[in-house]
Amino acid sequence: MSTKDGPQASRRGPYAKSAERRRAILTAAHAVFAAHGYRGGSLQDVANHAGMSQTSLLHYFPSKSDLLLAVLNWRDSITGDGTAPPDPEESLADAVLRQARFNEDVPGVLELYTVLCGEAVTEGHPGRDYFTERFDRLRRSYARQLAQLAGEGRLRPGVDPDTAAASLIALWDGIQTQWLLAPGSVDMAGCLRAYLDLVLLPEEDQERASAGAPPLAPLG
């Protein structure tokens, strides 16, 4: 038994060490890109932060653009990339508010996203396709859920699901930027909740509509 376990243990060792070094590089790159952006953060900065040489870093990530995409995908593994199907037991509003609150408690996540998303509008930025596809995916996902709510009588009259979906994403990103510039100055979840209350009818209004009664007047 010991003879068999020995080679297996030795084979696992290098793989474990390699995975650990990759995580160290991604953690360092996450911090560097969040603080300085992709343009301003160099591979040497990342290597210094990770405590290794740039040559060693390039062994794991052959180029800076490869590293950037790996960091973005790693970020998605922490917060989600918008592709996961909604929990059938969780409403759209509850899912949005849960994610907003979660993001506030993960150090560097909002900084990285906001800095790199802003940079990605510039020509030739390697993250441009990532953010373009992400926004398209999120718009389609939210629009699909809003259209379903419309079919259930939960969308306010005159609200277009596609427009509401794009507006929700724009509001979320804008509120995040304000929150980053002055933490505590805005209530991200509260602002998102207020917007969703404007486009969605409460369940009691749906029940009243089914019974032929007019909806309740909004508070305030």
From TrEMBL:
GO molecular function, one term: transcription cis-regulatory region binding
PANTHER family listed in its UniProt record: HTH-TYPE TRANSCRIPTIONAL REGULATOR PKSA (PTHR30055:SF226), HTH-TYPE TRANSCRIPTIONAL REGULATOR RUTR (PTHR30055)
Gene3D superfamilies: Tetracycline Repressor, domain 2 (1.10.357.10)
Domain HTH tetR-type: 19-79
InterPro entries: BetI_C, Homeodomain-like_sf, HTH-type_TetR-like_transc_reg, HTH_TetR, Tet_transcr_reg_TetR-rel_C_sf
Name of the protein in its database record: AcrR family transcriptional regulator
Keywords associated with the record: DNA-binding, Repressor, Transcription, Transcription regulation
